[in-house]
Amino acid sequence: MDRQELARLAHTHHPIAAPLADQSVAALLRRALRSGDERLLELGCGQGAWLLRALAAHPELTADGVDPDPAALTDARIIAEHLGVIRRLGLHHRPPAEFSAPHPYDLVLCLGTGEAFGGLLPTLTAARRHLAPGGTLLLGEGYWQRPPDQAALAGLGGAAADFDFDDLPTLLDRITADGWTPIHAHTSTRHELDDYEWSRTGALAEWALDHPAHPDAAQVQRLATEHRTSWLHGYRDAVGFVTLLLRQAN
């Protein structure tokens, strides 16, 4: 089972691929969508959960989603057809960093997609390239809640403490130094962080238990156990997540 398929499986019960509760997602979208007829773009949309919620709630919206996983885009298309919003949704199979559009967007979403662009500042540059004047960026980023120890770093696969994350004040300093102004933010709660991790590891473990004869069952069960151990014994108390609404001066 490849990485993309495992990611889809892990988010079976938590389609928003970030530690945010449904009410937090709804509140962020309400705050971001000021007129209800915006043009949206999500870079790294996966199965399109953010875009589909926005389109279902606002019949005048149009949206584009970009992702390198064709199966995730197929899932997004099926759900969009079921919701009756497919005519307002464009889906693009390509790496987010390679996407170009003939028009700008009122709202760009980049949620935990820094790896696709090579870090925070390249992500901000990519978003800026797609934003219309006066547009808004919805950015989701992890950060260190406390200085990481070796267990936290090991739990994240040996991440370098000075590269992958900043503490929250430093993260905001870097963003504002790049010319962005925060107009709203949501800091994920302990409940949201825990719910997300339990959902991910639980979905994998449940699938393995339900498909014991599948050739990938042992691999999926092992990954569920490794993820749970890395989280509980490693980064649980070290990593936070913030979702920011950002604008630039015209």
UniProtKB/TrEMBL annotation:
Keywords: Methyltransferase, Transferase
Signal peptide from the UniProt entry: none
InterPro entries xrefs: Methyltransf_12, SAM-dependent_MTases_sf
Gene Ontology BP annotations: methylation
GO function terms (MF aspect): methyltransferase activity
Record-annotated Methyltransferase type domain positions: 41-137
Keyword Membrane: no
PANTHER family found in the cross-reference section: METHYLTRANSFERASE, SAM-DEPENDENT METHYLTRANSFERASE
Name of the protein this chain belongs to: SAM-dependent methyltransferase
